[in-house]
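tool_call predict_complex ligand=zinc ion
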Amino acid sequence: MSKGLMGSGRLTGAGASAAGLMLLAACAAEPVVEGTPSEITARLDRYATVRLTTDMSVLTEREREMLPLLIEAAQPMTDLFWQQAYGNPDSLLSSIDDPATRQLVAINYGPWDRLRGNEPFLPGVGPKPPGANFYPWDMTKTELEAARDAPAAESERLRSLYTLVRRGDDGSLRPVPYHEAFPEELEAAAAHLRAAAALADDPELERYLSFRADALVSDEYQPSDLAWMEMKDNRLDIVIGAIETYEDQLFGYKAAYEAFVLVKDIAWSERLARFAEYLPELQRGLPVAETYKREMPGTDGDLNAYDVVFYAGDANAGSKTIAINLPNDEEVQATKGTRRLQLKNAMRAKFDRILVPIARELIAADQQPHITFDAFFENVMFHEVAHGLGISTTVNDRGTVREALKEHASAIEEGKADILGLYMVTWLRDNGYLTEGDLRDNYVTFLAGIFRSVRFGATSAHGRANMVRFHYFRDAGAFTYDEATRTYRVDVTRTREAMTDLSRLLLTLQGDGDYEGAGQLLAERGLVGPELHGELDRLADADIPVDIVFEQGMSVLTGN
Ligand code: ZN
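tool_result ok
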C-alpha cells in the first residue's frame, strides 16, 4: 500500500507554521492506545491495492526525464495536506508502533476513518473538527460569520480559499496566507516544476509549469489556470496546488493541497473531444425555467483521458478521485470553460475491483449484462462534463452559488453533476450521438454506482449526493427491490422521470442560492437509512473493497 506516504520521510512537515498549527493538540496529545488489531485490519481491508502504471514506451526521452521531476513536485502536497487536515503528524505517528495502524493513519491523513464518516479509530481521539485544521480548533461558525463586520478586505481574507484562519495574540481571528504558512514546501514544489518546465518541448506546457510554480509561492492561481486551459498538445500534465474545498466541512471556503501527475492517452482523448460541442444545446434543453439556464457553458473546454501515475495530498486521502473537472475559478470558467480529466487506469481498477463485485451481489440477474466498463466510463465522464452545465451565479443577487450554499455547496454541486451527467447520456442517445451500447447499460451501471459511492460514507460531498439520489429514485420507483433474490432492478421509464425532476430541484436550489432548502434536502435525504445499512453490510460481508490505495512512484513505473 501507499509506501510513498510512510517511507518518504516527508511527514515532518511545516516547521515554519508550527505556532499556528498546534491545533488538535487536545487530541493528539492524548496517550494513544492502539485500536484492536482486528478492527484496524478490517478497516485496511476495505482498500484494494493497485499499482499505478502507464505505457512508458510512448514517452519521448525528455518526457521520461520530466516525469520524476513532476513526481518530486507533487510529493510536498502530502505534507501540506497533513497540515491542513490535521496539523503536524509527528507526535501522532511516533506514538504508533503497529505498521498497519500507521498505514491506516497515512491513508486517512489522521486518526479519523474517511470511509466511515470520519469516525475516530484510535482510542482517546475525539470527533474530527468540521473545519479540519483550516480554522482554530475552538472557533465557532458564528465567530467567523461575525468577522464579516471587520473591514471588507480583512473579512474577505478570512474567507479566502488560500488562507488559514488563526488567532492573534489578542485572540481575534486573523488570516495567514498559505504561501506564508508553508514557504519551504511550496518553494520545493515550485523548484521542481521549474526544472520540469526547462525540459518541456511543448512551449505551452513550459509556460503552464512556470506559471504554476509562481502560483504555488504567491497563492495567485489565475494566470496558471488560464495557461493550463490554453495548453492543448501536451502529453504530460500535473494538477497541483490548493484546489478543492471538500476538506473544509465547516464553510467550504478553504482549498486543500493535492497533486495528480498525468500522462494523456491521446487516442482516447480524440474520441472524447467531440462531446464538448453539444454543451450549449444541452444547456438550452435543461428541464428547468429559462432564468436558471441563462449562463452559456464554454465550448472550448475539453475532455481528455489520462493515466494517472501519482496521487498526493487531498487527492490521495481516503476515497480516490477517478475524474477531475477544473479549474474551479469561475472567472476562468467563464472565459475558457473547464477541462475534464478522465483517469482511465484508476477508473478501470475501481470498475474491476469494486463495481463488478457489487453488481453481482445487488443487481437483478437479468440486468447483470448491463454492467459495462463503457457505461461506467460514460457515466463518470458525463458527470464531469455536467459540472459545466447549469448556473454558477445565483439569479437573485446572492453572489456565486458556492458562496450562497456554503457548506452544502459541494454536495449539491456533486449531486447536480451526477444527475445532469445521466441527463446528458440520455440526451446523446435520444439524439443518436452516442450509439454504442444501450441506455439500460448506463442506468443499471448508474444504480450500481450509487451503491459504490454510498460506501464512501455520508460525510463526503459525493456520499451525501448519492444518498439524496438513492432516496429520491427509490421514492419515485426508479428502481424496485425484490425480497426473494435481495436484488434491485432498474425501471428505465421511471428513472427518466426521476432524473428530470431531481435535475430541476437541484438546479433551482443552486440558482436561488437556497441555503435553507439545500440544508433541508441533505438533512432529510442525505443520510444512510436502515435499509441501505443492511445492503452495505452484505457488501462488507462479501469482502468487497470500498476503495483503492496505490503503489506508485518511479520505481513502480520503471519496474525497478
Ligand atoms: Zn464532481
